């Protein structure tokens, strides 16, 4: 069970991330300093660094802990559920949270340093997901391929959704992508 301190820390991190995104949208990422973010949140620069090690990290919000949370959700799924179906169900549940990060994702895509950091965060998340799938009995190579395919599916869904101008239902796209990519070894 999560304690008060953890909930408070998460709330402060969320507020800092929100303020930072507002400033980045207004001034640009490179033009906004840690001092600017801390001042907007009513804290010192030193306090800012208690919550985020770098300015880049403030952008990632929920993305930072996504792999860990997805892995926990995979572990909590019914043990008889096959791994691809499990991964589909868990990531389908994450779609609204991923979609809520649209402003952060636009900023990340338009800032080379942040795109590089996103790749690092995705690799960390994928490692946790691979481990969770392996713990469900999936061989390591298959777990690695499944996690990579799921990531590719979500990326393709995001691009298709953007191409449609937001007119296509994202959950329908997720279901379609997972059906299309269902591993051959499961059929």
Structural account:
The protein is an all-alpha fold. α7 packs across α8. The chain is globular, with a radius of gyration of 18 Å. The mean pLDDT is 87.
Question: Which helices and strands occur, and which strands form pairs?
Answer:
Elements: H1 4-27, H2 34-40, H3 45-51, H4 55-60, H5 63-76, H6 83-99, H7 102-110, H8 112-135, H9 140-163, H10 170-180
Helix pairs in contact: 1-2, 5-6, 5-8, 6-9, 6-10, 7-8, 8-9, 9-10
Which sheet architecture does the biggest sheet show? none
The count of β-strands is 0
Low-confidence stretches: none
Distance from N terminus to C terminus (CA atoms, Å) equals 39 Å
Mass-distribution shape: globular
**Considering DSSP H and I runs of 4 or more, what fraction of the residues is helical?**
over 70%
Average pLDDT, all residues = 87
Strand content: under 5%
Structural class: mainly alpha
Helix count from the secondary structure assignment: 10
Radius of gyration: 18 Å
Order of helices and strands: HHHHHHHHHH
In short:
This protein has helices at residues 4-27, 34-40, 45-51, 55-60, 63-76, 83-99, 102-110, 112-135, 140-163, 170-180. It has 187 residues and is an all-alpha fold.
Features:
mainly alpha; 187 residues
């Amino acid at each position: 069970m999560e304690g008060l301190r953890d909930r408070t820390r998460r709330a402060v991190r969320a507020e800092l991330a929100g303020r930072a995104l507002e400033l980045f949208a207004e001034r640009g990422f490179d033009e906004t300093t840690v001092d600017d973010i801390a001042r907007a949140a009513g804290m010192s620069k030193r306090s800012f660094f208690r919550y985020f090690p770098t300015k880049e990290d403030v952008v990632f919000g929920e993305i930072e802990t996504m792999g860990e949370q997805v892995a926990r959700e995979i572990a909590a799924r019914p043990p008889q559920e096959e791994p691809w179906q499990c991964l589909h169900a868990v990531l389908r549940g994450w779609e609204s949270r991923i979609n809520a990060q649209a402003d952060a994702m636009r900023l990340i895509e338009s800032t080379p340093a942040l795109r590089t950091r996103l790749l690092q965060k995705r690799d960390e998340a994928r490692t946790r997901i691979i481990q969770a799938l392996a713990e469900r009995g999936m061989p390591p190579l298959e777990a690695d391929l499944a996690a990579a395919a799921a990531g590719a599916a979500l990326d393709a869904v995001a691009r298709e959704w953007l191409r449609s101008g937001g007119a296509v239902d994202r959950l329908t796209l997720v279901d379609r992508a997972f059906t299309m990519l269902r591993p051959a070894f499961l059929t």
